[in-house]
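Could you help me review a protein record that somebody else here produced? This is what I was given.
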Amino acid sequence: MANADCIVIQGSNMAECHPVGYQWVTEAKARGARIIHVDPRFTRTSAVADKHVPIRAGSDIVLLGALINHVLSHDLWFEEYVRAYTNAATIVNEDYRDAEDLDGLFSGFDPETGQYDMSTWAYAENDGDRADARPGDDGKVGGPAGDPEHAGADASVAEAAGQQLGSGGAPLEHARMQRDDTLQDPRTVFQILKRHFARYTPEMVQEVCGISPEDFAYLARSVTENSGRERTTCFAYAVGWTQHSLGAQFIRTASILQLLLGNMGRPGGGIMALRGHASIQGSTDIPTLFNLLPGYLPMPVAGTHDTFADYLAAIASKKQKGYWAEADAYTTSLLKAWWGDAATADNDWAYDYLPRLTGAHGTFQTLTKMLEDEVDGYFLLGQNPAVGSSNGRMQRMAMSHLKWLVVRDLNLIESATWWKDGPEIASGELRTEDIETEVFFLPAATHVEKSGTFTQTQRLLQWRHQAVAPPGECQSELQFFFELGRRIRERLAGSDDERDRPLLDLTWDYPVDEHGEPDPEAVLAEINGRHLSGPGAGKPLSSYTEMRADGSTSGGCWIYTGVYADGVNRAAARRPAQEQGAAALEWGWAWPANRRLLYNRASADPEGRPWSERKKHVWWDEEQEQWVGDDVPDFPLHLAPGTRPDPDAGGAAALAGDDPFIMQADGKGWLYAPKGVVDGPLPTHYEPQESPIDNALYTQQRNPSRVLFARPDNLSAPSAGEPGVDVYPYVFTTYRLTEHHTAGGMSRWLPYLSELQPEMFCEVSPELAAECGLEPYGWATIVSPRAAIEARVLVTDRMTPLVVRGRTVHQIGLPYHWGVGDDAVVSGDSANDLLGLTLEPNVQIQDSKVGSCHIRPGRRPQGAALLELVADYQVRAGATVATGNTRIDPPGAAGTAAAGTDPHTDPSTDPSTEPLREN
C-alpha cells in the first residue's frame, strides 16, 4: 500500500479502526500519493485524506459501476494488460441473459428458491460440449448438488453452500473455451461488460449515491490518472463493504475496475481487505467457518460427496489450469495430518471421518435452531453475541433455550451474564428463575500470555512469544482444546462404536511442557506438513508443490506449507527493514510460499518485462531462464513468457507463459464470473433489505438471492413504495471506535479506555437534529422493527444529508461497542439490537451496515413499556413477515415467494402476527 500512487478507502474508517495499518497510508501520502475516503461519515480517515466523498450506505456498486463505465467509454482501460491477463476475449453462452435484459435478474433464476441455475452463464465451447459437464450433471453447472448452483434444491441445503469452490474458483476445462481476441463479438465478456454497466453514469451516481458530478469526476480522474504502466491505485475496504446483502458483489465490482486499470498483481495496486482483528485472516485460512476446511478446501455435502472420488471430482478437475487442480494432494495431506496411520488408501485416507453438510450451519442458522430447541449446548470463544451480533434480542433469547453454554473470555461479558441482567430480564420477557441454561465461564489467556501466530490482512504469519504466564486458571485456546480432546478420548477409550473412531484415531500426540501446555511450534510444524515416506521421511515440507495424493505427505493447511521449512519457524523472522530488500521477505512469513504480492506475474508484461522501471516487481531473466525480482515469483519459476502448453494438459502444465492468475481455472482474472458467484455473474445494484429509496436501475428492489429469516422476531421495515415506509424514514449505519474493541469485551472493562468513550451515542446532522427536536448531548431513542435503544446525541457536520432521488436522506451513525450489564466499567444500549438478520448469499455474512429506523428525543421507556413502543411502530408500519421478508419483488408487488420453508413465512398461520396485521 505504501507504494500506491492513489489509495481509495471505501467501506472502512481505516485511521480509527486499523490505526496500525494506516501508517502505510500516511507513508504513501508522504511519498505523494493521493488519498480519497468514500464513506457516509467524515472521520479521522477523512481528516487526513485529500478528499472525503460522502455516500449513501449500501449504494457502492453504483459508484464503482460508474467508474467502470467511465473507464470503458473513455478508452482508459489498460488494453495490453486486459487483453493478455483477463477473460475479456472469452465468449459467453448464447443463452445468457443479463440483468439489463431481465430488469434486474439474470437468466436461470428460480423465484421459488431464490437460486440461479448458472448453466446459461457458462462460457461457449469450441466443440459444443459443456466444458464442465460430468456424468449425471443433467444440464446444471458442476458442483455440489443442493448448493446454490442447482436450482430447485432444498433451500436450507442451498444456503449452506455459499461459495464452496475454494481458493481456485469454479472448475473449468480451459481448452474448450471460445475466444474473440478482437473483442468485437457481442458475446465476449468485454462487450457484455460494456452493456451491463452502460447505465451506471455520473447522473445515476448523483441520483442513487448522493454524490455530486464534481466529486465523481475527481474520483474518476484520480483513479485513472494513477493507473497504467507507470502508476497504480489501491482500494482498501473493510466490513463497510462486506456486511451487506451484496457484500461479495461490492468487492467483485472493485475487482473488475482494478483489472481494467491493470492494478492487480502489481506493487501499490490490488484490493486490501482490512480484517477486523489481529488474526481474522488466520481464522479463515484455518477456518472457523462451517463450510470450509483448512486452506479453503470445501466441506463435503451429504448425499453429493459421499465418496472421496465424488468430492475430488466436484472441487477440481485435473484438466483445468493452475495449482488448484492438485486439490487431491492438499486434501489427502490434510487427512493424513489429522488421522495419521489410520488414514490409508484402503479407506480413502479416512475421508469418511469428515462430517458432511446437511444444511446451513452458520452462526445465524444455528441461532434459529437454538430458538427451536434443536441445540443443547454452545461454545462461545472470542465473540459476544449478546451485544455484538445482529438482532441482539434474538441472540439472548436463543441462549435461554440452551441446556448449557460455555463462555471463554477475558471478562464476564454480556453473553455470560444475560440471564441475570440482560435487557429481557428488565422487560419481563425472561425471568432468571425460569431460565434452565447452565452457564460455564472459563477464563481465557490474553494474546501476551500465550505463544503462537497471528495471520494478518497481508497473509503474513507473525510469531508472538509468550510474555507472561496466564494468571490463575486462565488457559490458552490451544491448551483448552488439547485438554478437552484428551478428556473426551479418555472417556471413549475402548469404545467399539463406529462413530467414535474419528475422535479416537486423531493424531493427538502434541508434546507438552511442565505445565501441561502443548508446544505451539509442534502445532505449526504439523500445519506446515512433512514427508512421511521415502528418502526425506520425517523432513518438513518446503512448498505445497511437494504435497502428494498418495499418502506420502501430511500437512494441516496446504497454503501454510513452507512456514516451517527445514524445521525453522519462519513466522518468527524479524530482520529489520533497513537490512533487507523492498519486499521485506525476512519479516514474518506470508502464505503461500512467502510471496508478498499474489499473482505478481502480472507485474510484468506478456513478454516478461516490467511494465515500467518504476513499478517493477518480478520479471523474466533471459540469462538465468527464470523469473526473478524483489519478491518470490507467483508463477512456475522456469515457465518462459512465450510458452504455449499442450491443449490437453492440466494443472500447472496447462499454464501459458502469460497466465498470471495461477489459481484460477483458466489462468485469467475474471471480469465476468461464469460460475461460482451465486447471485450473478456481474455485480448489479439492488437496494438493501431495508431502504426508504426505490431501486433507480431496476424494478427488482432487493438482491433476489439474499438469505432471509422470515420470523416475527426478525421483521423488516417496509421499503420504498410499500405502505408504512415513512414510519422508519431514516437510515442508520454502525461502526466502531478506536477506543473500544468490537463488542467491548476487551475495552469496557478497562477504566483507561472507558473514560475516553464512556457512553453510547448517535451521530446526527444539524439538519436532522432540527427536524426531530434533538438536543446536543441530550438523549435520543432510536426505533427499528426489532428494538428500541437510547443514546446520547452528538450533533455533527460529520453526517452529511444527501439528496437521493429527489428526497433528503438522513443517515445516523451508531457505534456498536456497548451492552447492558452490571460487570463492565461502562455500559449502554447495543446498536446491534436494532439490526435484523439478512445474509449475503455467497459467504453468509449479515447485512448490518444499513437499516431503517426512526429517531425521537428523550430516553427510551423501561420494562414492558419498551416492548409496547416497538410494537406500536410495527403496527403503524404494517410490518409482518410477508411485507419485508420476501425473496423476490416482482414489478408492482410487495413480493410473492418467501424464504425457505420457515412456518412463520405465512402470517396467516402464525397467531403471533395477528396484532401486526390489524393495520
User: Anything to note?
Assistant: Confidence is low (pLDDT under 50) at residues 128-166, 890-919. The chain has 26 helices and 29 strands. The longest helix spans residues 477-492.
